[in-house]
Design the sequence.
């Protein structure tokens, strides 16, 4: 029997020991969409998760599909982990994306819209409104929208207009009265991004939402007077946003200009996807496909009963009248290692002990307060830190500016290549530079992803170094939504390591060794493989062994094969991987002893923890690095060792609680699919996103990861 094309590809894919990064990512977005399908969630939570899947998919097409087109367009060879070459892989990937797209829209029309209606919220066309409401809409169009619209015609006299990334566009095909059909023209009307997605008509018990495209569609004729409109097609394009900066050794203004130029290219990069409403003009779509060199599998059809671009649903979620309907998270609790929070001087506390912060259960204010206090303290001499992403109105920037004004030495490495935060980072970095701070805009061809803070303070004729090392960004906004780890310490070994690392970042230094810090790109991959191989050696010698790792993504093949070898030696390996996972768990003879879980829920799991049993002499690390090629080879990353017994137990308990979760957890199968983990009969729900608010030190000290 001859295999169908899709089945043939599936056979090749399943034979591979590794899972495609991109196909794995699609499975991750399916898990996010599954959160929108959970019956226990309110309609507003369901809207939120559906909107997240849409913005995730936009970024995926811009970056990952954009990268794939870089290979296709320039005829560069690429063999994916799946075993497929560029063209077959694109065919398979588009098939999976089309299926996901259909699932999104089916969920919206069959579940979301009816549940919104039950809440008194209606999404309607203008024709469904009363005469009075229609007049309101007409006046809104005339006064607020009409002046913003610019029809752009394409014909033999005018060049093809630049259509912007991710904007809704009306493609209008017109003819002049009496002209032949082959004289028709194509015009485009872009809907500006600064117009609200819905026009809202509120009453006491209901909310009527009219999508902005329906308001414009109803009045589109006012832009095309005295011509015949043959067809109107609503569509949206996604452009390639993947670029690699060719960075020189000169990292000053020239480098910033290069970043700015690449940002501009994002607006005109090659088109990688078209979302288009049913009933479109075939002539227009064929013209667009030919112009943009796309095949039909890159066209995503949307039914009129649905809508293009679910990111607009944030307008409903953010509506003030529904503020009380969104689940309220408990207030942050005091860190187990810092019960004195808010009542004692943090500088004094850190002289006596380390503090472990687990966000968002513990407030990020401890870090912000430390930096703000340091900026004003006359005994603080220097502040050094790395910045990857900041909040829009950042307390960090304000504190550093005050520190500089107060005569302190301030060194900041701003990673201006932080994807989609480049413009904000450039703006904030320039503020600091003007205030006299020493600002570095990235290192050579590496992206600085490590999260480090060093405060140098004079205490009674002695110099004390206060250090923060973390897994997450210094961003007070995302710290309320992301789970992250932070260590505050004056430990001299770590302080020396961090000082050395800053010298590498800001100067020309190659340290001989770090004691409690593992860094990339120098030796992180090799060090982690060495730890894994030690567990394998212990298992072969009949000694206790175990590997427990929590990361965002697992993609590096050298690490994966080291884990396979350890599994074959008898090491029990438990991995908690939120997103991409290219390892196949439970494959007979290859990975029998490896389990993989993914947690997706109210908080975005962002913390990284690496724990190796090491025959009872445990090694436990946290930090900024995932197990990806880019983390090991193309980024400045760091993992820090946690040695304090209570703090190490806390990290081990985070791993144990994640493994115990039966509300947010999905179990990865050998074929790369995932099954939701559900409570067994008689077993209570265990939701880590709630349990960490009720944790105490006594419970933590009982943790044991090895059965």
Sequence:
């Amino acid at each position: 029997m001859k295999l169908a094309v899709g089945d043939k590809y599936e056979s090749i894919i399943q034979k591979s020991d590794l899972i495609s990064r991109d196909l794995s990512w699609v499975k991750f977005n399916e898990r996010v969409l599954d959160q929108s399908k959970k019956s226990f969630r309110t309609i507003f939570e369901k809207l939120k998760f559906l909107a997240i899947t849409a913005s995730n998919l936009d970024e995926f097409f811009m970056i990952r599909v954009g990268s794939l087109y870089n290979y296709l367009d320039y005829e560069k060879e690429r063999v994916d982990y799946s075993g497929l070459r560029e063209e077959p892989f694109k065919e398979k990937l588009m098939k999976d994306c089309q299926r996901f797209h259909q699932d999104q829209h089916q969920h919206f029309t069959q579940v979301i819209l009816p549940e919104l209606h039950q809440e008194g919220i209606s999404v309607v066309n203008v024709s469904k409104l009363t005469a009075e409401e229609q007049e309101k809409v007409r006046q809104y169009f005339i006064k607020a929208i009409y002046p913003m619209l610019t029809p752009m015609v394409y014909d033999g006299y005018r060049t093809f207009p630049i259509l912007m990334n991710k904007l809704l566009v009306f493609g209008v095909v017109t003819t002049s009265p009496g002209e032949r059909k082959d004289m028709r023209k194509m015009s485009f009307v872009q809907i500006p991004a600064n117009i609200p997605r819905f026009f809202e008509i509120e009453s006491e018990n209901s909310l009527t939402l009219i999508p902005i495209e329906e308001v414009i569609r109803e009045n589109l004729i006012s832009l095309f007077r005295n011509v015949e409109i043959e067809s109107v097609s609503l569509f949206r394009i996604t452009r390639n946003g993947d670029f690699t900066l060719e960075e020189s050794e000169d990292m000053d203004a020239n480098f910033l200009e290069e970043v700015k130029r690449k940002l501009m290219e994002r607006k005109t990069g090659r088109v990688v996807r078209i979302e288009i409403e049913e009933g479109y003009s075939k002539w227009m779509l064929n013209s667009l496909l030919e112009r943009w060199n796309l095949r039909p599998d890159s066209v995503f059809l949307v039914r009129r009963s649905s809508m293009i671009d679910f990111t607009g649903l944030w307008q409903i979620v953010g509506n003030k009248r529904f503020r009380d309907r969104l689940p309220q998270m408990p207030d942050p609790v005091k860190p187990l290692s810092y019960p004195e929070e808010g009542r004692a001087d943090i500088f004094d506390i850190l002289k006596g002990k380390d503090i472990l912060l687990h966000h968002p259960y513990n407030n990020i204010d401890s870090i912000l307060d430390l930096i703000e206090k340091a900026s004003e303290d006359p005994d603080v001499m220097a502040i050094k830190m790395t910045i990857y992403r900041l909040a829009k109105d950042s307390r960090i920037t304000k504190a550093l500016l005050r520190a500089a004004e107060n005569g302190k030495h301030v060194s900041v490495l701003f990673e201006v290549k932080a994807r989609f935060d480049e413009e904000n980072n450039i703006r904030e970095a320039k503020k600091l530079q003007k205030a006299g701070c020493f600002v570095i805009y990235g290192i050579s061809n590496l992206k600085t992803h490590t999260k480090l803070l060093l405060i140098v303070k004079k205490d009674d004729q002695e110099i004390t170094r206060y250090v923060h090392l973390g897994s997450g960004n210094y961003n007070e906004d995302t710290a309320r939504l992301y789970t992250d780890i932070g260590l505050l310490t004056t430990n001299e070994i770590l302080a020396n390591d961090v000082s050395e690392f800053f010298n590498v970042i800001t100067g020309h230094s190659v340290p001989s060794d770090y004691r409690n810090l593992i860094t990339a790109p120098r030796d992180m991959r090799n060090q982690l493989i060495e730890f894994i191989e030690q567990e394998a050696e212990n298992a072969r010698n009949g000694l206790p062994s175990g590997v427990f790792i929590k990361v965002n993504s697992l993609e590096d093949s050298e690490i994966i094969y080291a884990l396979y070898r350890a599994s074959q030696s008898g090491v029990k390996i438990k991995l908690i991987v939120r997103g991409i996972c290219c390892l196949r768990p439970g494959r007979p003879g290859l990975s029998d002893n490896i389990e993989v879980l993914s947690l997706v829920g109210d908080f975005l799991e962002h913390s990284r923890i690496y724990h190796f049993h090491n025959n009872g002499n445990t090694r436990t690390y946290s930090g900024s690095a995932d197990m990806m090629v880019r983390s090991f080879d193309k980024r400045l990353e760091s993992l820090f060792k946690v040695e304090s017994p209570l703090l190490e137990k806390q990290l081990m308990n985070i791993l144990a609680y994640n493994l115990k979760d039966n509300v947010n957890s999905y179990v990865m199968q050998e074929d790369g699919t995932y099954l939701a983990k559900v409570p067994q009969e008689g077993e209570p729900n265990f939701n880590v996103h709630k349990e960490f608010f009720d944790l105490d030190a006594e419970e933590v000290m009982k943790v044991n990861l090895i059965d």
About this structure: The chain has 20 helices and 27 strands. Residues 29 and 491 are 41 Å apart (CA to CA). The longest helix spans residues 86-118.
